[in-house]
Amino acid sequence: MRITEKYKGQEETVRQIAYIEKAGVYVEALSHKLGRKPACCVTTFGCQMNARDSEKLAGILEKVGYELTEEENADFVIFNTCTVRDNANQRVYGRLGHLNSLKKKNPHMKIALCGCMMQEPSVIDKICQSYRFVDLVFGTHNIYKFAELLVRMFESDQMVVDIWEDTDQIVEDLPVERKYPFKSGINIMFGCNNFCSYCIVPYVRGRERSRSPEDIIAEIKTLVSDGVAEVMLLGQNVNSYGKNLFPPMTFAQLLKEVEQIDGLKRIRFMTSHPKDLSDELIQVMKESKKICRHLHLPLQSGSTRILNAMNRRYTKEQYLALADKIRKEIPDIAITTDIIVGFPGEEAKDVEETIDVIRKVQYDNAFTFIYSKRTGTPAASMENQVPDAVVREGFDRVLKVVQDTARERVGLLQGQVLDALVEEVNEQDQSLMTGRLSNNTIVHFKGDESLIGQIVPIYLKECHGFYYLGEIQE
Ligand code: SAH
Ligand code: SF4
Ligand code: F3S
What we know:
Blueprint: H1 3-6, H2 11-34, E1 39-44, H3 48-63, E2 67-68, E3 76-81, H4 86-105, E4 110-115, H5 121-130, E5 136-138, H6 146-154, E6 160-162, E7 183-187, E8 189-190, H7 201-205, E9 209-210, H8 213-225, E10 230-234, H9 251-259, E11 266-270, H10 279-287, E12 294-296, H11 304-309, H12 316-329, E13 334-341, H13 348-361, E14 365-370, H14 388-411, E15 417-425, E16 432-437, E17 442-446, E18 455-464, E19 467-472
Helix pairs in contact: 2-6, 9-10, 12-13, 13-14
The protein binds S-adenosyl-L-homocysteine (SAH), iron/sulfur cluster (SF4) and FE3-S4 cluster (F3S).
């Protein structure tokens, strides 16, 4: 089949495939010069969506002739950045300093930066002024142009910077190099329209756009025929999937279609905004054989007053009622959450409300974050910012309760036999394999590499806080 026929109606995909070939010529020339295949390293700093983007970058780098490596001392290094909290930014600057010293020893080395942090004009100013050794900078909206940007980079002796403020484009069918052969993330939507007052994501990822169900299903079918057993449907708020499609479609309807795909074993998704979680979704999860028994349902705060200031659009009582309903309908589900401590104006009594919700909902796990002021968000200009010492104290209190309840919840599985998808060899003990239960709990057990990618029944023998030691049930 000719490329142009296969990608009919997708002019941009065809253009980018031409650039992949062109970039390949430059990499080939470099390969001759070096006397070996040039190496490239893709580093992910952010969330699952960021990680999925990295797989797209890796797919193109491999296609143009690079060999992927984990080593940062490579011929092409790209940092896929995150800016959700300031510490993510600081890590990037720290690691860039190290790259500079590596580049001084390897004159062929190229350095690229992309991802959410690059959508901030102040970051671009700083890179252009103080990090002149960077070769290529682009953002989140034009990632599909990576091959084209690589060509520009090879043809320029100056830093190439290409940042777009927003886009409505979704470019399909470009190469992807998956990190795991047996599981994969799938973007079902991009961007976010919620504008929680602390959050920078809507500014750096743009407005919400859903992919068509046909494209999503086709991608999953291809993945399944390539050995994928588990997919994770990705979006900042999957519960509002499909609202802007014509004809509109709900997330629950999409899940039902994904469930029909033969050979697919497990379905996960994230993230669910509590304000949009429908009864229809709960029923679809309840009746499904493939949707995993895990729901990530970010709380952020248990205080209605703070939730209001955060623009989350639910109250403490609404959240509790929702969690209750889910637990009643699907008793074996694990609920996990995200919590922010130290939002402007938060007082000790608000932190107590958060702790109250943790005790009532009994999370299986919770990510607790210290509030980070993000320039340009409404919360950053609120006057009542909380002093660090007070935040720290509240954070420690929340963390203690989260850990105690999670330990208790995970302990409830003791003695059961549950299916685990075998993911990898245990890093600490090579005789053990690591698997993941439907409810997202990790289990380690004796086994060999041939099991990777299979779903096996495991007897959950000993609970070690947040994970289990188990045995394969023959
Ligand atoms: N779309 C997802 C969250 C994406 S960001 C949702 O709505 O749940 C992941 C988590 O980072 C958020 O749930 C929140 O807990 C945290 N986060 C976002 N902005 C933050 C900030 N400014 N400071 C601290 N934590 C933040
Ligand atoms: Fe950020 Fe809120 Fe959108 Fe999540 S829903 S990405 S927290 S603005
Ligand atoms: Fe994800 Fe960080 Fe961007 S959390 S969407 S990579 S700001």
